[in-house]
């Protein structure tokens, strides 16, 4: 199993696998994967929501229900399925993996979604 590298820079190229989980469960899945030694990333954004007549700033995932992990696909799939999550696949049924640095990962994933 690959261990997390907490000193990773935003420009370091890695092979990320996209995972899907229930919306609002991203943080729990990230904690589970991090505890198992995986490097994870869930890009976040500030969103303004109206609640009880007031506008509030909330930090939410950029891609609801999605996060990214670096590691062996078979091991990640096994752990993800135990947490009610799944690896996203491409049109050919292969795991959706993106070779990118952390900084450009959201843009590359958004580009893949447009295809």
From TrEMBL:
SUPFAM superfamilies: N-utilization substance G protein NusG, N-terminal domain. Residues 14-94 form the NusG-like N-terminal domain. The keyword Transcription applies. The keyword Transcription applies. GO terms for biological process: DNA-templated transcription elongation. Pfam families: NusG. It comes from the Bacteria. Keywords: Transcription. This is NusG-like N-terminal domain-containing protein. It comes from Bacteroides muris (ex Afrizal et al. 2022).
């Amino acid at each position: 199993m690959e261990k997390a590298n907490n000193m990773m820079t935003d420009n370091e190229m890695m092979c990320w696998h996209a995972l899907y989980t229930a919306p609002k469960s991203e943080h729990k899945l990230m904690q589970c994967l991090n505890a198992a030694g995986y490097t994870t990333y869930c890009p976040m954004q500030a969103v303004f929501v109206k609640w009880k007549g007031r506008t509030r700033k909330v930090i939410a995932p950029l891609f609801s229900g999605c996060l990214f992990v670096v590691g062996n696909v078979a091991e990640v799939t096994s752990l993800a399925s135990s947490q009610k999550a799944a690896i996203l696949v491409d049109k050919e049924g292969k795991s959706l993996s993106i070779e990118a640095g952390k900084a450009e990962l959201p843009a590359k994933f958004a580009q893949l979604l447009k295809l």
